Amino acid sequence: MIRLDNVTKTYGLEAPAVRDASFEIAKGEFIFMVGPSGSGKSTLLRLINRQEQPERGEVWVAGQNINEIAESKVPYLRRNLGNIFQDYKLLLNKTVSENVAFALEVIGRPKHVIAQQVPAVLDLVGLADKGDRFPHQLSGGEQQRVSIARAFVNRPLILLADEPTGNLDPATGEGIMRLLERINTTGTTVVMATHDQRIVNMMRRRVVQLDRGVIVRDQERGVYD
Amino acid sequence: MLTRISYALRETWVSFRRNITLTGAAVVTSAVSLLLVGSTFLIQRAFDNLLTRWKGDVELIVYVRSDADATQIEVIKGALESQASIIDVAKLRYLNQAESYAEAEKLFAGDPGTLRLLTPANIPSQFKVVPISQDSNLIRELGEQFRNIPGVREVAYAQDVFDVVARVSQFIRVATTVMSIVLLVVAVGLIWNTVRTAMFARRREIEVMKLVGATNWFIRIPFMLEGLLQGVIGGVLSCLGLWGLNTAWSGAVADFNDTELAALVVTDGYMRFVMVILLLIGAIAGAVGSGIAASRFLDV
Asked: Which CATH number fits domain A2-80+156-219: 3.10.20.30, 3.40.50.300, 2.60.40.1470, 3.30.450.280?
């Protein structure tokens, strides 16, 4: 589903954010990218959804070398990828339902599809009764659920989560993990960058560890370190 | 498809209203600059009307009475052609009554009263004379000789109107053209800035849109429509202003019926043509300004 071949990415004149990274992620896998801040986890995610382009190496997603596809085709690549962030990136002037519907609206889905899928996904993330609330009326965990609903409403092949539990207390974080696990069981590949040791150790999934841009460990059913 | 169109229109309108101060500034600036562009068109047209008699280096016009017979006209023509040392015989032109009437329609555009009295049957025909000699006294001397030939109604000299008017018209042309170009650039800049501000205000939304896979055109079009709308509204306002100005001017000129000023009026047909041009320029300016902004700031 995702393959990186000897990928190197440098920002400006600094030391490479990612150096010579190679790994492969199978369909339906659940994988943690771990390592301290600045170790290159987020850069890897940004390379996978083509927010960044590598200097060297190739990034393959769903059978395509995504560094060779035309700029105009990038939006269609992104429709296969759901993104979740530490800061949720919700639109504050829109309700929960509108935030989720927005993701379908801007890729031109017809109204009746939106009307059907938004309540379904809100039900999945446990916010069926909060569709009319605004983000500031929700707790952090609930806001993250909205962002997961938005990322998943289009049924992407892959979910990219960048520190999704970073702003949440442990119990709420665990709830989010259970939700991601549930989404994973539907066949969606989940790639999650985190430095939350507790969660990684609890889940016992594949762990790719980064240190200053270099992959230093790739372990099935791993722990944080 | 319908979802997309309604989305684009809704977003355009929301954004247009949200930024009312900047939008207002952009609209007013484009209106003022387009008004100047329009005035330039009208002023040039008015002077063209005024000078239309003298087009092509004509320095002397011999008007022939409307009741002159063919023989008399031949005599006048022969007399003119015999002066090959002073006038350019090859360029000597005779405008018959129908042609003279067509010219008069421009000349008396602001003076419908006079125009109504003229018909292709009672209007004088005319000889347009292009001299070789630069000596204006010589031309005047020649002209005075024709006054007494039977059938000649009147003799007119370009020198009497031409020099001053030509110079004034040239000056006004250059000045208004330069000003309107500068203002147009400013208008495009302001529209650009308004759209850029609108995009900056919505960078979060744009970021989310890009991440969920909205195409660049989908994101861009509401912003481009916003700029287009500003340009078009500016164009409409400038048309109204121009129409008002022209009406007031025509009214003022009507008080000076017997003078050359009567030619300095632009008729409705040309006015409509200028209005269409203004709307087009407004739309293009808006689309260009916002298009540049939308492309440049899409990498949020």
From this structure: 3.40.50.300
